Amino acid sequence: MATMGCLTLLALFATISVISASEKAPVLLWSNNKEQALPSSLIGHTTENLGDGFMDADQNLIVFLQDKLSLDDITKHADVFNEASDGATFHHLKGLMEQHHSAYLPSVSSPVSLVQNLREKFDGAVHDVSGESLADVAFDDAKKNLVMVTLPSTAVAKETALSKIDGIFERMTREMSALKKPFTAVYTGRGSSQAPAESFYQGRHLLATADPGANYTFINLTGCIYFYMTQVDFYYFTEHWELPQNPDVDPSSDCTNGTISLILNYPAMTGLTDLQFIFEFSSTPSRMWTLDYFNLTYTVSGNSTGSGNNVPMSTALIPDTPEKFSYHCYQGPMINETGKNVTNQAAVVFTSLQVQAFNLSESFGYYNDCVGFFTIPIWTGIITTLLLVSILTFGVLMLLSIQTMDRFDDPKGKAITVNVVE
Ligand SMILES: *[C@@H]1O[C@H](CO)[C@@H](O)[C@H](O)[C@H]1NC(C)=O
Ligand SMILES: *[C@@H]1O[C@H](CO)[C@@H](O)[C@H](O)[C@H]1NC(C)=O
Ligand SMILES: *[C@@H]1O[C@H](CO)[C@@H](O)[C@H](O)[C@H]1NC(C)=O
Ligand SMILES: *[C@@H]1O[C@H](CO)[C@@H](O)[C@H](O)[C@H]1NC(C)=O
Ligand SMILES: *[C@@H]1O[C@H](CO)[C@@H](O)[C@H](O)[C@H]1NC(C)=O
Ligand SMILES: *[C@@H]1O[C@H](CO)[C@@H](O)[C@H](O)[C@H]1NC(C)=O
Ligand SMILES: *[C@@H]1O[C@H](CO)[C@@H](O)[C@H](O)[C@H]1NC(C)=O
Ligand SMILES: *[C@@H]1O[C@H](CO)[C@@H](O)[C@H](O)[C@H]1NC(C)=O
Predict the structure, then answer these.
(1) pLDDT value at 159 more than 90
(2) Neighbours of 365 (CB within 10 A)
(3) I need a surface site. Which of 45, 147, 193, 357 has the fewest CB within 10 A?
(4) Domain ranges of the chain
């Protein structure tokens, strides 16, 4: 049992340490604005954003966007392992980084959305440039300016292209300095030029088994919610129905207003008609997504009759889950009606439920499981281990406390006599 507990722990850490291979690119920054706080990054860490300091400062921004860029491009073409190097292909860039207040972030996730974000939040004039000079740009002296430079393609003749790009840095930086306004330059790529070594698997492979006519229900509502389950059971007093797979998604389902409304219509079954599941999800300011409502409409006829129209069910079905995480529960609890009038006892039980709302990627994110981390087998493992370790400690302490005698009886000498005073 102890071994099992340890293995479970090991497996868990192994899973956590697997990193997803998403598009990451390095970002280089240089600025003539000494007040500008530049972000810093720890080696091996991925940065998600550059901070808001860029927007607040009264300065121009210039963003150089290359089609693809990776750490290897810089190390290889800038001759970085040679201390006396002049920077090889990137010698202007090296000079710029040295002369200016600069920063280097080796790994930034999704640089495209970062640049997009910069563009959206920027309150000033935005100019798009694809040439090699800023001569044609109509700078607005009254406002801040953001220049988005699309660098030449590096797909063919990389070395030559990078050399040209290095020249562009030099020229445009000079032109920016000439504007007599502080500026910060950002150099990054739309994606990584490194092919991912292999696509890592993160979390469960539920979507990998996608085959039509399958034994599960999977709903992808216009890319804003994934909803997977293998079975749903509907209970009404003592009666029970196992619901069919792949219910119809009601056309009124939508996710345009910051909330997700998902409505599932089940086909009529004997004794159970008009069955409709209504889910409403929203995201909270604390970067969680939450199930606001789970309402049920049903009509039961037959041995027992009853109906419910949009009756609220317990939202304990799905607890609040952090953004980008999915919620998973292999054997869900029985979800009952919660209204004041609970004489109509409809209940549902979901099996192998996995849901993720908002911030979706190609598959479910890492899962928040309904079975907590400290399950009974894990506790049993830990307690057994502690017990065995304490027995061992006791034994070792006992062994250490054995002392050799400091006096021995000498058979030739006088016998030791101990006077006993009575
Ligand atoms: C679905 O699973 C059930 C039980 O696991 C099995 O009896 C059934 O044949 C499966 N159906 C399909 C279409 O795979
Ligand atoms: C979900 O739908 C969106 C667009 O409707 C699509 O881009 C995405 O690939 C789909 N995801 C899955 C897992 O099918
Ligand atoms: C979104 O909300 C606005 C105002 O609250 C409303 O007018 C509009 O109809 C809503 N759109 C949808 C699709 O629900
Ligand atoms: C209704 O009750 C009868 C007798 O108790 C039973 O045989 C029958 O299966 C029940 N029907 C349903 C739909 O539960
Ligand atoms: C669910 O039911 C509750 C109580 O009747 C109601 O306030 C809420 O608006 C309903 N939710 C939806 C999405 O219809
Ligand atoms: C739901 O109803 C069932 C049967 O009526 C009951 O046994 C169970 O405790 C209820 N669950 C909750 C969470 O109230
Ligand atoms: C509660 O449910 C019963 C049976 O369905 C119904 O007769 C009664 O009017 C309901 N009470 C309220 C307050 O809704
Ligand atoms: C996740 O989605 C919510 C709601 O659409 C959005 O406000 C939030 O910025 C997104 N978070 C990330 C990290 O994309």
Answers:
(1) no
(2) 20
(3) 45
(4) 20-191, 211-369
